[in-house]
Amino acid sequence: MSDDKHFNFLNVPREVQKTQTGPKRIANFREVYKPLKEIEASQQASRCIDCGNPYCEWKCPVHNHIPAWIKLLQKGRLFEAAELSHQTNSLPEVCGRICPQDRLCEGACTMNNDFGAVTIGSIEKYITDTAFELGWMPDVSGIKKVNKRVAVIGSGPAGLGCADILVRNGVAVDVYDKSPEIGGLLTFGIPNFKLEKEVIEKRRKVFKHMGIKFKLNTEVGKDILLPELLEKYDAIFLGMGTYTAITGDLPGLDLKNVHTGLDYLVSVNRFQLHYQDSAIDTKNERVVVLGAGDTAMDCNRTALRQGAEKVTCIHRGAMNSLRGSNRDFMNAQDEGTHFMWRLQALELVGKHGKVTGVRVGELKNSEIIQGSEKVIPVDRVIVSFGFAPSPAPWFVENNIGITKNGLIQAQSSRRLRGQTANEQIFAGGDMVRGSDLVVTAVFDGRNAAESILKYLEVGD
Amino acid sequence: MHSTPPNALDQLAKHGLYDPQHETDNCGFGMMVNVDDKPSHELVQRSIEALIRLEHRGAVAADGKSGDGCGLLLRMPEVFFRSIAKQENISLFEHFATGIMFIHPDKLKASQQLIESLLTDTPFEFSAWRTVPTDANAIGQYAHNSLPAIVQLFVNLPKAMPTAEAETRLYILRRQIEKALVDDPAFFIPSFSTQTICYKGLVTPEHIADFYLDLKNPEMASSICVFHQRFSTNTLPQWRLAQPFRYIAHNGEINTLRGNLNWAQAREKQFSSEFLNNIEEILPIVNAEGSDSQSLDNMVEALVRLADMPLYKAVRILIPPAWQNIKQMDSKLRAFYHYHAIHQESWDGPAGLVMTDGRYAVCTLDRNGLRPARWILTKENHLIVASEIGVYDCDPSNIAAKGRIGSGEMLAVDVKKGEILSSTDINDRLKTQQPYRKWLNEHLRSIKSRLTDYRFLESTIDPDKIDIYKKMFNITNEENEKVISVLAKQGKEAIGSMGDDCPLAILSHKIRPLYDYFRQYFAQVTNPPIDSLRESLVMSLETYFGQEENCYSESAIDARATMVSSPVLSCSKFDAVLNLEEDGFRHEYIDLNYPESMPWQTSLKKITDKAVRAIKSGKAILLLSDKNIRKGCLPVHALLATGAVHQHLLSIGLRAKANILLETATARDPHHFAALIAFGATAIFPYLAYACINHRFNMTNASSGKLYTLRKQYRTGINVGLFKVLSKMGISTIASYRASQLYEAIGLNPEVINLCFTGTTSRLKGIGFKTLQAEQSQLAKLAWRASQPIEQGGRLQYSFTGEYHAYNPDVVTALLRATKTGKQKDYDEYKAFVNQRPIAMLRDMFGLVSKPIALEQVEAVEKIYPRFDSAAMSLGALSPEAHEALAVAMNRLGARSNSGEGGENPLRYKTEANSKIKQVASGRFGVTAAYLVSAQIIQIKMAQGAKPGEGGQLPGHKVDEFIAGLRYSRPGIALISPPPHHDIYSIEDLAQLIYDLKQVNEHARIAVKLVSKPGVGTIAAGVAKAGADMITISGHDGGTGASPLTSTNNAGGPWELGLSEAHQVLMANGLRNRICLQADGGLKTGLDVVKAAILGADSFGFGTAPMIAEGCKYLRVCHLNNCATGVATQDETLRKNNFIGTPERVTNYFQFVAIEVRECLAQIGAKNINDVIGRVDLLEKLPAQSPKQSLIDLSAIIDGYAQFNGEIQHCTNNAPFDNASSVLMKQILNDVIPCVTDNKTAEFSYPLKNTDRSIAARLAGRIATLKGLAGIQQHPITLQFTGVAGQSFGVWNLAGMHLRLEGEANDYVGKGMNGGKITIYPSPEQDLPSNETPIMGNACLYGATGGEVFAAGKAGERFAVRNSGAIAVLEGVGDHCCEYMTDGTVLVLGETGRNFGAGMTGGLAYVLDMNREFVDRFNTESVLIDRLQAQNMEAYSNHLQSLIETYVEQTHSSWGQEILDDYYHYLSYFWLVRPIASRIDELIQNIKEPL
Predict the structure, then answer these.
(1) Please, are residues B1262 and B1233 in contact by the beta-carbon 8 Å criterion?
(2) Are the Cβ atoms of A53 and B807 closer than 8 angstroms?
């Protein structure tokens, strides 16, 4: 009875394949997860029972029509699947790689607890990658120009999401970014082993094909001033992210060989992309990473790949209190990260202006246990406690309201979501909601684009 | 008793949900004729006696004396009236006419004067008025309140006037009088004729002769008497609606009434009469105000009087037998029916008719044979026909012949010639009247599809534009994939599970198709749905094009028409229709696209004007097309256009001159097609559906052959769907469905209804043209925007951007958590998701008022639990673990679980896991006496919310060994319950089933489950009168089972409407306090419960929520058996490893709900639930959340309650209502029970008559209680009866009970028997050949699970339907024998009817086929037949022989003996009939030998 295809969730095991085991794969920076082969993709897809309450779609921040594209894939209708996948998400191949699926779609999947969730992330990645490989591109042939121009500032997930929707509606879009490549943190923050840079490059080509113009190496407020943009464009979207590292005012931050997580990752990425000649290098060093979010895991894993002697990750909480992706934690552990739990970093100690140790104390019920303090010897410390907003000085002068935390104030109402106090300016992503996932930034950008269309009365 | 004023119903009609148009009735009927035309008083007297013997088929009002009406229609007792005239000094000429008139007492004088004045212009001469002598003491209070003056008019006729002329002139005169007195609602002329006289009224049969003193007069003598007694659904019936009418007495219901009335109106001007200047003087021909039976009588009369047809012919045309699919029908006869079908749709529905025009006395049955009619002819040449045998006591030796009228058959007597005319005699007369065959050959053309026709396969729209079309017409990806593509791939509709949890269209925030505002009607209680799956031979979709001439004068030209086999056109047929170029067939193209700025009323006016102009210029086909979409224009919705054109043409008398043909993008699923046809469309070309199929499958490079097949399958799927829509309303042919308007509109404004859907019920009002147009405009905007993707959907499964779902992931996950943890804060979170959801159901539009009292004052939760039932979910649909846990949980709470329809493991009966509610559904799976006596409540499922009008489905992969065992079926074979209960074709049948159930289990309360629809209140009143103790009103938003998607989403209404209607109508009839009312459908929280209570519910049913408590995640895959939570699957792995449900989780849920109920009660200041029932003042209307919602008018729901303020509005009667004790039953119990307890074998004998019903069921129930299912096998009891058994002889019989009957029996012999033996044989004095003589009625052995029946005679229709284990031997059967049999053996030693073995999946049958006709009579799709002589058949041949031996031993049948005497000769005439999937070598192993 149970040999029919409706029972594949029982008969076919959930499978997510990595290229190599942890210790082996740190020899390089290649993506950790193996792309699915055609047959695997279709088998894994067949585990989805297309249930009446797709919890995956419900939990997905952009509400991808997951069961529908899984079904299309299963039936070999790959291009339709890619098309549908792009209907709700501007960067599906990116999200398929770096979303914390275990907390989102796969975590909610009907099959999750008892049978192993459907491998939604890998399938999502497979669909777009393969469609691109086979020559598919979003169809923009029917788009009619509407004689409206919008500037998008920041080419991270929010900006790209916004540009995607606008260009599909015939709006002329220029995307400004201070960096030499698009993607923001996708390119410069996230390590290659999670998201290979070719992916963003391909995506840039796709967007260019769709008609988006990128003005790179152009920093607004420096290379070009906002009033000029306001003059030139009918509307402006700000998607500039949050870059200010939270450091917790830890004594000793000014010592040498102490970095913020993002600085470290950016340095490595820029180096690998040949935008700079060297990077912060942890080879043969004892590295301590403070914090246990996704960025911290990225730092751990990058350091291991650079050939660090020992990478220790220190976290205040217990193992089961991690807020980040469980998958990233597991990978970091696999690859050799040494985790220390319930430890509070109290001070960075150094010699000759260079860090040599981290003084820590054990925590119990948020209190330091008396006498538990000790110093962990280090060669380098990476502080990764998260990010705070980085409002630009020109926000205020252009009537863009900000909260007391430095986040941009934007409408949350249905009508013109993302509009700032300056009605010509919209914003979304981390700079509005605070540091969050890539996928939520995409969602915000797309929503803001819809608002911009309404504001510009496009399509009415 | 109570103080409801008699006019409570009138009040409700004005301010509530009651609508008199939903009144229906069923009844007992018959006729008695002296074939030699010798009038006698005895005939009149014995007719009345017969009527009294049928009293159990009628009903009595709450006053105990007012009947629902009965009456007699007599051939004119001329001698009697001459004698009266003499006594009363009335002058009567050689020819006279007389009429009985009901006149309002206050208007008597004036009316009489007016009638006299109308007489002056006629050739008739006024003679006298006579007050008909009556005795008002013979009627009850209700009847008395509306008693009219009953007077008799005598007129004299000119000498030379022929009878036909006199009758037609009297008819015309009567119409003129009726029109002149239209303002008197009491006015009615029961008869006005030279040939007949009618006595009728609101009186019970036993008092009719006390009331009408004429009937007692020994001089009152007649040779024809047609008699009838009514069982109407309300208790305030009307005098004028008593039957018989002027020609007919009708037992049944015209399902297609609205359409028939429409078409009668469309064609009435074609009538003419030489005695009439202008037909307008007597229009309308058919009165739409009375009852369906009365309308039919009007139509028959018009055909007889104005088209000059003999009575029997008129009736054959209006109610034809099945002919389209009857291959072996005589070709000339088929031509007769075919010719008439072109212009006369049948008046479709269950019907038994007896009638007379004074010369012919006729009885006929509809094509489905859904009413019983048995006849006997005595040696004195008296013919008696009645619903039952035994109403006329007659010495067996005095019987010359006996018979049964079969499906679609007719029996007539011509007293003038002294002839009895059989069906064949009548057919022979009909078919030779005109050269119909020749006419058809010359003028009827048929557009046939070629075997393979690859032309026209390319899409008729530009592939680049398909997305624009999809967006313009609101096709989502979901609809494309899950509806259209599935139809194309499978040739049938997609199946879904878990009902419909989306808002009604009017409540939705999304743009919904106009079709979503229409809910399909379905048959329920007063009429049966048809089993279109197994009885497809009565179904037809044949459709005709062409302009109608005068169809009431038979001529060759009326055969001119173009026929297609289905109204769903392929491209090539569409092309062929458009290429018809002759007069009478040319078409006019009418574009439905109009400028965006033009209001739709104006556009519709232009469309209708164009249609009128086209017709006037000679066009006969109006092609309404929405295909030419263009920017700046909007397509007016095809359904609006169809309705507007149809209604307009109807109103100006042009409707019969044209057909409406649609080329529309809006028609995609069967519901769409059905709605278009129901509002007037002739045929539909669904171009966008085809384009979608092309588009969808071209992507995978479909070859043209494949594409051809896909499109063809799509049409097949639609056709099958149409059959289902028709059959769920009990309609056989699309012609009768066309313009029938069998829909309720929910959310449409009267302006839309009046212009496009005139007369359609729309109780909540709602959106008008402006909103409809604005929504289309919105769609158009998106359609033309290239960047706008096609919407994903979300109607069928949750999608973030799609429709709201009441069981969305938030709700389900929160409920799962709350029931798991049992923590109040988790329930509070769940409660918030539900109680604060956006308005999705009607109840969400109300809040509770706030006038709090302390919580401690409110009744305890323990008082509330007994009001909670879990809804019926079968063991089979649910896993045994889930089913059992639910039962345990409900029992622990003191609430009740419902077994559902799949039987129950007998090991559970006396344990904590026993379901206190046992369901009886149409499939009768595992319904045995033991099952029934284990119940506190027995629920008869008439309909279920997810698919009213259809039976439950259990896919084959869920039928494992265990489930099959409980259901007495075969593992792996899908079980689809029949749409009808084969023992409930009418309300009196339901009363009989209730009686059967109360016989077997006198302690159980009988519940009847209904689904909300307009008129459910009237049905509920009828059900209450039928003796039920409880009624469940299910809403469309419930439902857990597997069901075709269009059924789930488009049939049945919200329970809020049904419940309030039922409550109000029951109150108005004084019946509310004797019946418990339950609401069921999507109930989730305590707030839901309290709102339901306020709207009238005593009790509450929960389906989905307790399932979720058991771990169900609402995956909606129940039909696939792969339920990942182990709740709705039989898969062992999933059940073992993944089922997490426990009784505790379920009790957690109900505890939370009960706690919340208390809180709500405290909030509204009520101490208990009884205090809030009917108290709509405790509700407050909440603000609307959308412009559409703000247009809803809830006053229809709310206003009706006001008049009952201060009355007791809840059920006060906790004991079951007992209408089932009989003297004989008590006698049998007294005699037998001691033997049972002492384990003694014994024999007793008793006489029987037809009023002794359900004989021995009480004994079976007692034995089942004492001994269980095994019965008294070891110490059998024999009961010997003599006489005529009433209905349900041997029902629920058990092992060890041997019933022997010398005489004969009525319907339902051995129904539901599980063991024992029933032997019936004729009286030795009766000298009729047993193999030609009926010995029992219809639906015998229905749902039997074991036991044996031996009957020396013939049975009626549907013998052994749903038999799953009994062995039967008899000498002849009617149509549909062994239908859907799953086990057992049936041996027929003689003739069978048609459609033998339809849907048979188990067991076997033997048929003796002496005339070699059986090859045309068995169902070739379901069974195979084999001869028995071959070597390898020896085992069967031996088995057959031993069966016959046993049979002869039991019955002493001489025919049986004859066969045994020459066995090897007869053997060569036998067939073995077996299921198509069976193997000859295995079949024999499963055979049970008779004991």
Answers:
(1) yes
(2) yes
SS3 state at B981: coil
B789 contacts A49? CB cut-off 8 A: no
Question: Shortest Cα distance from A18 to chain B (angstroms)?
Answer: 28
- Does residue A438 sit in helix, strand or coil? helix
Instruction: For residues A299-315, give the mean pLDDT.
Output: 97
ipTM: 0.93
Instruction: Tell me the average pLDDT of chain B.
Output: 93
* Mutate which: A2, A5, A49, A53, vs B, most B CBs within 10 A: A53
Distance of CA B1133 to the CA centre of its chain: 41
Residue from A1, A9, A115 to probe the interface with B (highest B Cβ count within 10 Å): A1
Q: How far is A422 from B431, CA to CA, in rounded Å?
A: 87
The one-letter amino acid code at B90 reads I
Taking residues B1143-1161, what's their average pLDDT? 98
**Residue B459 Cα distances to B453, B486, B708, angstroms:** 15, 19, 12
Mean pLDDT of B1185-1195: 96
Q: What tokens were used for B196?
A: 């007949």
The answer to whether B460 contacts chain A (CB < 8 Å) is no
More confident residue, B712 or B59: B712
List of chain B residues whose C-beta atoms are within 8 Å of the C-beta of residue A80: 699
Please give the distance of CA B188 from its chain centroid, rounded to a whole number: 29
C-alpha distances in Å from residue B1006, one per residue of B11, B990, B1265: 30, 11, 18
Give the residue on A whose Cα is nearest the Cα of B497.
Answer: A52
Q: Give every CB contact of residue B520 below 8 A, 6+ residues apart in sequence.
A: B671, B674, B725, B728, B729, B742, B743, B949, B1050, B1051
Q: Which of B800, B960, B1134 sits opposite A63 (nearest CB)?
A: B800
The Cα B1111–Cα B1124 span in angstroms is 10
Tell me which residue has tokens 């069974």: B1423
Q: Give me the sign of the Cα torsion angle B487, B490, B493, B498.
A: negative
Chain A hits for B1113, CB-CB cut-off 8 Å, are 51, 53, 55, 110
The H or E element that residue A123 is part of is helix A120-133
Q: Is B813 on the interface with A (CB under 8 A)?
A: yes
- What the block records as the tokens of A337 is 């990260």
Phi, psi of A357, deg, nearest 5: -165, 165
Model confidence at A325, in pLDDT bands (50, 70, 90)?
A: confident
Share of chain B above pLDDT 90, in %: 83
Residues of B serving a catalytic function are 27
* H/E run at residue B829: helix B824-835
Do A63 and A88 touch, CB atoms closer than 8 A?
Answer: yes
pLDDT in tens, A164-199: 999 999 999 999 999 999 999 999 999 999 999 999
Beta bridge partners of B196: B75
Residue found under tokens 């929910």: B746
pLDDT at B64 over 70: no
Q: Of the candidates B1, B16, B238, B5, which has an alpha carbon nearest to the alpha carbon of residue B1063?
A: B16
Closest Cα of chain A to B1432: distance in Å? 33
Query: Crossing angle of helices B769-784/B600-616, nearest 10°?
Result: 90
CB-nearest to A2 from B1116, B1133, B1138 is: B1133
Helix (H, G, I), strand (E, B) or coil at B564: strand
Q: Residue B244, preceding bond cis, omega within 30 degrees?
A: yes
**Whole-angstrom Cα distance, residue B20 to residue B760?**
14
Q: What is the DSSP letter of B480?
A: I
* Pair of tokens at residue B214: 């004429």
The pairing of strands B1076-1080 and B1099-1102 is parallel
Q: Inspect the interface and report whether the beta carbons of B1122 and A49 lie closer than 8 Å.
A: yes
Task: Indicate if the pLDDT at residue A376 is higher than 70.
Answer: yes
Count of CA atoms in the C-beta half-sphere (13 A) of B765: 11
